[in-house]
Structures are given as structure tokens and as C-alpha cells.
Amino acid sequence: MPIDRAVAVSAPRRESTFSWTSADVLLYHLALGAGTDPLSPTELRYATEKDLQVLPTFGVVAPNLRLTEPPKVSFPGIEVDLAKVLHGQQEITVHRPLPVEATVTAYTGVTDVYDKVKAAVIVQESTVVNSTGDPLYTTRSTIFARGEGGFGGERGPSATVDLPDREPDFVLETPILPQQALLYRLCGDRNPLHSDPDFAAAAGFPRPILHGLCTYGMVCKAVVDGVLDGDVTRVAGFAVRFAGVVYPGETLRTQVWQEDKRLLITASADGPVLSDAIMTVL
């Protein structure tokens, strides 16, 4: 079905209510590789109930924790084959620290659709409020739908982050488990691109790739632990552009430049993985 930007952008925001518990938070952290040192007090704050803290990136996956079917790219005016989809950008703005358990309401909609000719870029935003109606966090994401461009829309922005002309202040290395994608899919993203070799091959990849949001969470954790003394409450926002794929079994190499209240970040494995990444800190 051809994309109809006007229908997609004008559609009312969808309202949904969902909950999470400490078990969901623990599973998410373990799926990111937390607990590799089971004697580390920092790791145990991610991997046990005692003094449990919640990585802010958990807010991005929390709405889909209970999903057991592959996700669909289906909105008013938009229907896209899942095999054509790649995650483009992801951002979260944290209005207050995420609780260990909560029942919240999200208001979600498509805010824009850009025409890159060979692909469409779909921008989605979700505002999440707690049980008393106070804003908890806001997420914004873009997905690339290959082969869905050419509908006559605007190309959209292409801003980049200029890195300082000096060596990074921190270089952090994070091993990716061979089974990392199989663990992470239990957090609600059952896209077979991350688990089925035949599906991955049909999509043009030599083997299943790691979820972009798993990379997103792993880099957030690496920076929190390596730069912010393991204090998740110092993260006010985290925005990234997905620059390439990463495969289970590789090693993430995260570079960080400190700049006032911003941390400028890149991550690579065999090649670039995240670019134009900014973590805003308190």
C-alpha cells in the first residue's frame, strides 16, 4: 500500500496502558549483558532486587514487553513489510527516574514521514505518563522502510553531530554474547531478523543481526557505568542514529567525549554502529 503521509500524521494518537515489574527490569538488564561480574556492586544493582535501578533505555522497550508475535509496521496510511524495515534513530527524554514497577499510559502517533526516494523514513513519538498523569518520559524513533519512498514527500532533516578534534575522553569495550539476540528477543521484539538465519538471509544479511535497541541499551549501560559512576539517574536523555549492523559475538567499542552537560558518543564493532549520539546528563 502506498504511504499516505497526510493520513499518517493527522491520525489521533493511540492511547495504551501497560505495566512492568522488577522481573521485567531484571530481564531487560540481563538481556543487555548485565551481571557479567556477579560480585560487582554496580552489576548487582542491575541484576538483583537489592537497590535495583532502572536504565532509562528500558522505557523504550517497556510498551512491548508482553508481545510474543513479530512486530508490525502498521499505522493509518502506512503498511510496510517487516523485511524492509531498519531502525534509523532512537531517542528518549527522561522527565523523572523510571520506577522499578509501574502502571503507565502512553500516547503514541506518527509525527512525520520523509521521502528519501529509495526509502521512507517514518517518525514516531510516544509520551508516557505515570498513574497520576505526570510525564515520565518521551520517546522518539525513526524507521527506514526500504523501497517505500517516491511518494512525493519532503526529504527531511539530516543533521549530524560534530565531534571534538581530539582523542575521546573514554573508550569503553563491551563484549556481545553469541546468544545476546536470543536473550534480547524475550524483551518483546520477536522480529525473526534477529533469530532466523533464513529470514536474515532473505533480508540481505549473512546471519541474524543484533537488535538495534539492544545495542542502544548496551551502549547506554557502558556509558553510565564507565563515565557516570553507575548512576542511571544522571541520564536526562539519550539520542542516537543507527549507523550499521552489529552481530552477536562481536565487541562494541564506545568512544565518549565530554562537553558540558552532554556526552558525545560513537560506537563501533566491525564497522560503525551508532553515530550522532548524544547523552544529556544532570
TrEMBL record:
<dbReference type="GO" id="GO:0003857">
    <property type="term" value="F:(3S)-3-hydroxyacyl-CoA dehydrogenase (NAD+) activity"/>
</dbReference>
<dbReference type="InterPro" id="IPR054357">
    <property type="entry name" value="MFE-2_N"/>
</dbReference>
<dbReference type="InterPro" id="IPR002539">
    <property type="entry name" value="MaoC-like_dom"/>
</dbReference>
<comment type="similarity">
    <text>Belongs to the enoyl-CoA hydratase/isomerase family.</text>
</comment>
<dbReference type="GO" id="GO:0004300">
    <property type="term" value="F:enoyl-CoA hydratase activity"/>
</dbReference>
<dbReference type="GO" id="GO:0006635">
    <property type="term" value="P:fatty acid beta-oxidation"/>
</dbReference>
<feature type="domain" description="Peroxisomal multifunctional enzyme type 2-like N-terminal">
    <location>
        <begin position="18"/>
        <end position="147"/>
    </location>
</feature>
<dbReference type="Pfam" id="PF01575">
    <property type="entry name" value="MaoC_dehydratas"/>
</dbReference>
<dbReference type="GO" id="GO:0044594">
    <property type="term" value="F:17-beta-hydroxysteroid dehydrogenase (NAD+) activity"/>
</dbReference>
<protein>
    <submittedName>
        <fullName>Acyl dehydratase</fullName>
    </submittedName>
</protein>
<dbReference type="Pfam" id="PF22622">
    <property type="entry name" value="MFE-2_hydrat-2_N"/>
</dbReference>
<dbReference type="InterPro" id="IPR029069">
    <property type="entry name" value="HotDog_dom_sf"/>
</dbReference>
<feature type="domain" description="MaoC-like">
    <location>
        <begin position="163"/>
        <end position="263"/>
    </location>
</feature>
